[in-house]
Design a protein that fits this description.
Layout: H1 3-7, H2 20-31, E1 42-44, E2 59-61, H3 80-99, H4 107-114, E3 117-118, E4 121-122, H5 127-140, E5 150-153, E6 160-163, E7 171-176, E8 193-194, E9 203-204, H6 207-210, H7 213-221, H8 226-242, H9 245-269, H10 277-315, H11 319-342, H12 370-384, H13 388-402
Parallel strand pairs: 5-7
Antiparallel strand pairs: 1-2, 3-4, 6-7, 8-9
Helix pairs in contact: 3-9, 5-8, 7-11, 8-10, 8-11, 9-10, 10-12, 11-12
């Protein structure tokens, strides 16, 4: 009798009497001995049921099981949840670094872009400006070794601080090159350009109005007193102490991660992954638009409140600072009003309103209105130095009427 015939009577015994290892061994023998591969997964029948004629030894074949990498518990890194987590954290980190790039590792690039040049070289820093910055730093509470490096700017119409004072990457303070001028007659209106210069055209002032009264008024708006410069420097040094860009970068990072979380929810819980590619692209674009609007509206609101708070804090440093704030914003408003009529092709009318404010966007705010910022300094001047604001305002109006 063959070895198969000796094992055949085992069919009479209930399978429950065999251990799992023994059942597996008997099955291997019946199917061809050791080395048979692959091993199908089978489940034993109950004692009360009859063995199937097509399944030897009472085993019921259930087919082969395929284990996907996402279900591999031995390597959780390749699980579906871990992949989404890695994507979310990476995208949030990239958004944070990108938003804070100009204020951290990209300060040098920002400085090169806004740098004002004279004779092909960066315009040197005026000793008067350096001394003024040191005086303001003492009033703000910044030590001498923490004063940020200075550079003159070409495209910015106001002073601005990049980075964070005392931070890892430090800070840099840029101020307009017009601050080096002390008399209106020193302003050369023929060299002024409006907007960002391009390779195909340059927007200049109308030649017929440069020599008129409007040209002289424009020259006056570009000359600031020490009080006006003092206020602008104080406001930006206060900005540099806060490191406000961290809040903006963090908000963008959280917004991006929330967007990815919503996309995952739609794909896994609402069956978005099974829809056509075109439908997926439309839904992705819609969700991105919603979260983009949430970010820009929130960012503009927080930024405007922050800038208004900086104006108030700078004006409260002293009477000269409050007077300087009123002067700085008054001349900025007057300059924009004049540019509306002096720029070629009336290009300035597309940017500035009759009141001297920058036109807001369709959805976004482009900053606190200049008229509102002037009112903030004016209110501080009235509340802390009663009578001075009225006298200064009336003096300014009388000077303009005489000119």
């Amino acid at each position: 009798m063959s070895w198969f015939g000796k094992l055949a009577p085992l069919n009479r015994f209930p399978l429950a009497r065999f251990t799992p290892n023994l059942r597996q061994g008997v099955f291997v023998c019946l199917r061809g001995g050791p080395g048979y591969s692959p091993m199908p997964t089978r489940t034993p029948m109950s004692m009360s049921s009859k063995p199937s004629p097509n399944s030897p030894m009472g085993f019921k074949p259930t087919g082969f099981t395929k284990q996907s990498p996402s279900q591999d518990s031995s390597n959780p890194f390749f699980s579906n949840g871990m992949q989404w987590l890695l994507l979310t954290v990476t995208a949030g980190g990239v958004a944070f670094l990108g938003s804070s790039f100009v204020h951290t590792v990209g300060q040098g690039l920002a400085r090169d872009f806004f740098q004002h040049h004279t004779g092909g070289r960066p315009t040197p820093i005026s000793p008067e400006i350096t001394q003024l910055v040191e005086e303001v730093a003492r009033d703000v509470g910044i030590e001498s070794h923490q004063i940020p490096p200075l550079f003159t700017t070409l495209y910015l119409e106001d002073v601005f601080c990049f980075g964070r004072i005392g931070g890892v990457w430090g800070a840099q303070l840029g101020y307009p090159g017009d601050w080096h001028l002390s008399q209106p007659s020193e302003v050369d209106l023929t060299t002024l350009r409006f907007g960002v210069a391009s390779h195909d055209q340059e927007i200049k002032l109308k030649p017929e109005v440069v020599s008129l009264v409007m040209g002289k008024k424009l020259q006056k708006t570009l000359i600031l007193s020490d009080n006006g410069k003092r206020f602008g420097i104080a406001r930006e040094l206060l900005r540099g102490q806060t490191g406000f860009y961290h809040i903006k970068s963090l908000a963008l990072s959280v917004n991006v991660m929330c967007f990815i979380a919503v996309i995952r929810f739609l794909r896994e819980k609402r069956g978005l992954a099974g829809r056509p590619k075109t439908a997926q692209a439309v839904i992705y674009g819609f969700v991105a638009t919603i979260w983009g609007l949430i970010y820009v509206l929130m960012n503009d609101r927080v930024r405007d409140q922050f800038d208004s708070n900086l104006d108030r804090r700078a004006a409260e440093l002293g009477r000269d600072y409050a007077l300087g704030g009123v002067e700085l914003y008054s001349k900025l408003i007057k300059k924009r009003q004049l540019l509306r009529s002096m720029v070629e092709k009336d290009k300035a009318k597309n940017y500035y309103s009759v009141r001297g404010d920058v036109y807001p966007g369709l959805v976004r705010s482009k900053g606190v209105r200049t008229t509102v910022r002037k009112t903030t300094c004016f209110d501080v001047l009235n509340s802390k130095f009663e009578g001075d604001a009225v006298s200064e305002e009336s003096k300014e109006e009388s000077t303009e009427s005489e000119s």
